[in-house]
Design goal:
Blueprint (H helix, E strand, L loop, with lengths): L1 H26 L4 H16 L4 H34 L15 H4 L2 H18 L6 H11 L8 H14 L7 H18 L4 H20 L2 H13 L4 H22 L17 H36 L7 H15 L9 H7 L5 H19 L8 H22 L7 H17 L2 H12 L5 H18 L4 H8 L4 E2 L2 E2 L18 E3 L4 H10 L5 E4 L5 E5 L1 H10 L7 H4 L7 E2 L4 H10 L4 E5 L6 E6 H13 L5 H9 L1
Parallel strand pairs: 3-4, 6-7
Antiparallel strand pairs: 1-2, 4-5, 7-8
Helix pairs in contact: 1-2, 3-7, 3-8, 3-9, 3-11, 5-7, 5-13, 6-20, 7-8, 8-9, 9-10, 9-11, 10-11, 10-18, 12-15, 12-16, 12-17, 12-19, 13-15, 14-16, 14-17, 15-16, 16-17, 17-18, 17-19, 18-19, 24-25
Length: 629
């Protein structure tokens, strides 16, 4: 009976669609392209793919497409690099016996850069954007919409740039390609802005999961770094896409971990002290990487403008400089991962570790900063593995009985530096666990990664992504896109009705209000209305525990050193304060007079922000213009 019902319903839909087509074709007076576009829209309306189950099937398709592209991406880089750099060793080693290669090797990255520069100038006809920042910007400002041909362009330029010896890594580009694929499919199927952002996340997760063989890490990367949305409605399709992408990748590239390492574990509790020190060093190294990269990139841009160098030639110049450096240290090539494997087994030399640690940010900046393509995942992992390997050799030499081998520290350092650069320790912890298969070393990785992220944040406010976004006025705060919130005044969201007392009010009255109202924060003002401070749970607990003395008034109890918002403040400022502090309620004060105007609660602020994000519609700029007026 159910089969018959489904069959009849399908037949009915086909009849209805045919009727619509015939009716429209009879009266339609536009072009054939307009007719096909309208017919496609009618067909999608009949399918109703926005429902949860059909949407999961679309997520499966995104995972499949991204998985295939990731396999092609991986193999293309491997084929090109193997052909061009087979048997390459460092200049100065006894095995370097072909001195003609001194002149040829730097020309290979230069040629790759020239191809990329010409392609971007004459085919794409646009200067390449930074990879992951452009994806985050699309989520924050463009409802997840990325140009539909972007994934093709990014695939070609990344394969050429990395395969010919550029300094960038392959992981971030494939995540960007996957995000572009998800966004393109969402646009073709006319999905809503929310669904478009989710499919973008599906592609990013599937891409990273496929190339790293790390589905859990891919999912966490999409929700923590790209979307900043952990809701079940968003999470489920991303999980499905990441699993499909990983399974497909494993069927072609194998199911073994990305890095094969021996088993490491925490040798003693005292060793956590060393991992903490490594986390601090990793956080500072992360800042060093970010600062070095952008200083070199900005200098390259200044030189280009000053000497009026054609944009298409800049990647070639960057590739040539990169090639000269890599003659001496071939481990700096973006396609090379052997140096990480040797560090993880404790077999890398001091000379190589120092060289890679210091020069990897420079090589990446020369490649990507000049207009080439490549990502930051592998470079930061290389830098971190070198830092950990060097640190591990030192502590293992000084304290051999209570420390693990240097390879364990290389593994932890690899994750810690990456966490410091991304400020996403949870993503890094999960990726490191999956790419190594080492559960025993998770505790030190967690400890060092969180320490590194905290130190990096205290030392430097920007990540690799937010530095670019802040320059473009796209504000992102701890996973939440704050661009829209930057145009919303706190006066629109604040409460004007709340419990407040004068500074001369007796404490007995405040205690009575505490017992008879739901409020836990009481705002204290002068009789003229000027804000003084807050009496919160901490102050009330002291009074209820120790009792009060006769004549005690609100001014004796009030906490005066509190963070306030002003009538000129925007919602993004409030959201940032709520994220990094323990405040659940903030007073809103008039800037000139200091009078208390209202209060802003954390849950209401975030709720209002989410509603505004859902109401953005197709044109974010229109909302900004209306608010500006």
């Amino acid at each position: 009976m159910s089969r018959l019902f489904v069959k009849n319903r399908l037949r009915r839909r086909i009849v209805v669609l045919t009727y619509i087509l015939l009716r429209k074709s009879r009266y339609f007076k536009g072009t054939s392209r307009q007719f096909l576009r309208m017919t496609w829209a009618s067909f999608l309306a009949q399918l109703n793919l926005n429902q949860d189950l059909p949407f999961l099937l679309v997520a499966v398709f995104v995972g499949l497409v991204t998985g295939y592209v990731a396999v092609i991406f991986h193999d293309a880089i491997k084929i090109i690099s193997s052909y061009l750099f087979y048997g390459t060793t460092a200049l100065g080693l006894p095995t370097f016996n072909n001195y003609l290669r001194i002149f040829l090797l730097p020309l290979i990255p230069a040629l790759g850069g020239l191809i990329v520069g010409l392609y971007n100038t004459f085919v794409v006809k646009a200067r390449p954007e930074h990879g992951l920042p452009s994806v985050i910007k699309a989520v924050a400002q463009k409802n997840g919409k990325i140009p539909t041909k972007n994934w093709i362009h990014k695939t070609i330029t990344s394969v050429v740039s990395i395969g010919t010896g550029g300094g960038g890594g392959r992981e971030a580009p494939i995540a960007q390609v996957g995000a572009s694929i998800g966004s393109t499919i969402a646009q073709l199927l006319k999905f809503s802005p929310g669904r478009t952002r989710t499919l973008l996340g599906c592609g990013a997760a599937a891409g990273l999961a496929a190339v790293f063989n790390a589905p859990i890490g891919g999912v966490m990367f999409a929700v923590e770094v790209i979307l900043g949305d952990f809701s079940v409605k968003t999470f489920s399709p991303i999980v499905v896409a990441a699993v499909v992408g990983t399974v497909l990748s494993r069927s072609y590239l194998g199911s073994y971990p990305t890095f094969l390492v021996t088993k490491y574990s925490l040798v003693s509790d005292t060793e956590l002290v060393f991992y903490f020190i490594l986390g601090v060093l990793a956080g500072l190294s992360a800042v060093l990487f970010i600062r070095t990269f952008y200083i070199i990139e900005e200098h390259i841009q200044k030189i280009e403008k000053r000497f009026r160098i054609p944009a298409w030639s800049m990647p070639a110049i960057g590739g040539l400089l990169c090639g000269f450096i890599c003659i001496w240290v071939p481990e700096l090539y973006g396609f090379s991962y052997e140096v990480i494997d040797r560090a993880l087994t404790g077999q890398e030399s001091w000379t190589n570790m120092i060289a890679v640690y210091l020069l990897k940010p420079v090589v990446v900046a020369l490649t990507v900063g000049s207009g080439g393509a490549g990502g930051m995942f592998a470079p930061t992992m290389k830098m971190g593995a070198m830092l950990g390997g060097m640190f591990g050799k030192v502590v293992n030499t000084l304290f051999p009985t209570i420390t693990a081998a240097s390879g364990a520290y290389a593994l932890v350092g690899m994750g810690a530096v990456t966490a410091g650069i991304m400020r996403a320790p949870l993503t890094v912890i999960l990726i490191l666990f999956e790419v190594t298969g080492q559960y025993e070393i998770v505790l030190p990785i967690m400890f060092a990664a969180v320490t590194s992220a905290l130190v990096a944040r205290l030392a430097y406010p920007y990540t690799m992504e937010t530095y670019v976004l802040e320059k473009e006025n796209v504000r992102v705060g701890f996973g939440i896109a704050l661009t829209i919130a930057g145009n919303i005044s706190v006066l629109e969201v604040m409460q004007r009705k709340f419990v407040k007392f004068f500074d001369v009010t007796k404490v007995e009255t405040i205690i009575d209000a505490f017992h008879n109202t739901r409020d836990s924060h009481f705002f204290i003002t002068t009789p003229e209305g000027s804000f003084i401070g807050i009496i919160g749970l901490d102050e009330m607990s002291l009074v209820l525990k120790d009792g009060i003395f006769p004549g005690m008034i609100a001014d004796d109890l009030v906490k005066k050193n509190v963070t306030v918002l002003y009538d000129t403040s925007k919602l993004d400022e409030a959201l940032k304060i709520f994220e990094i502090s323990e405040y659940s309620t903030l007073p809103v004060v008039e800037h000139q007079s200091g009078k208390l105007l209202g209060i802003l609660k954390q849950d209401e602020a975030f709720s209002y922000y989410r509603k505004q994000m859902n109401l953005i519609g197709e044109d974010t700029g229109e909302l900004v213009k209306q608010r500006a007026i």
